[in-house]
Specification:
Layout: E1 5-9, H1 16-24, E2 35-36, E3 39-40, E4 48-51, H2 63-73, H3 78-91, H4 107-119, E5 125-129, H5 137-154, E6 157-162, H6 165-171, E7 174-178, E8 185-190, H7 205-218
Parallel strand pairs: 1-6, 1-7, 4-5, 5-6
Antiparallel strand pairs: 2-3, 7-8
Helix pairs in contact: 2-3, 2-4, 3-4, 4-5, 6-7
């Protein structure tokens, strides 16, 4: 659904990233079909955008030029590109860094560039492959909160991959718990609609209850987690 954040939670190497790449059109499914809005995915498309864990900015372009890169390829006029990029850069807190180069940015800021570069194309679905995995805990929490703000503003559907239980609960509307490789869905967990999602939530009893439920499912003895 529009505006929903769906998280795939599973062990490293289980195939979480492969799911996203299949939805993105970067890899063909080994069986069955991938549909987005009822349409068969056969290739990459502007209706889907992907943010990777590795920093993917072009080092020779400024922050603004990185964000506008896809728009430029589409032949969009410079004035319109500037209007769109101004809005997105403001949303992700990079307006004052628009003319800086990636080498001048912290890890968290580089991921903000990647998110902005994806959102500027107004994708229907945003695919995020452990985008905050390399960040320190404080920066990671800030990026999680930023993602929630941007998601509410843009109303994109987000498919998010992680193996961090706390991150999954904080971000998700729905969590799919995956088995070890080859991945299959073991459980669907619907996360309560918390009144407010902020740092205090992570110590709240209702948040901890969902974390415990997930951990119990993940570490249940074989045969009891089905």
């Amino acid at each position: 659904d529009s505006g929903e954040i769906v998280v795939f939670l599973g062990p490293s190497g289980c195939g979480k990233s492969t799911i996203l790449k299949a939805v993105a059109g970067l890899l063909p499914p080994t069986a069955g079909e991938v549909l987005v809005d009822g349409k068969l995915v056969e290739d990459v498309g502007r209706d889907r955008g992907m943010v990777f864990q590795a920093y993917t900015s072009f080092g020779w372009l400024t922050v603004r030029e990185n964000v506008e890169y896809g728009l430029k390829l589409q032949g969009i006029a410079k004035t319109e590109r500037r209007k769109v990029s101004d809005k997105i850069l403001q949303q992700v807190g990079l307006a004052e860094f628009a003319n800086r180069y990636p080498k001048d940015l912290s890890g968290g800021m580089k991921q903000r560039v990647a998110i902005a570069r994806t959102l500027v194309n107004n994708p229907r679905v945003v695919l995020m492959d452990e985008p905050f995995g390399a960040l320190d805990p404080q920066t990671r929490w800030g990026m999680q909160s930023l993602l929630l703000e941007v998601s509410r503003a843009e109303n994109n559907t987000i498919l998010f991959v992680t193996h961090d239980v706390s991150e999954a609960v904080y971000l998700a509307d729905t969590i799919y718990v995956l088995s070890s490789r080859p991945a299959r869905i073991l459980h669907q967990v619907d996360v309560p609609a918390f009144p407010v999602r902020d740092i205090a939530l992570k110590s709240a009893s209702e948040f901890r209850a969902v974390e415990k439920k997930l951990l119990d499912l993940i570490y249940a003895p074989p045969g009891k987690s089905e």
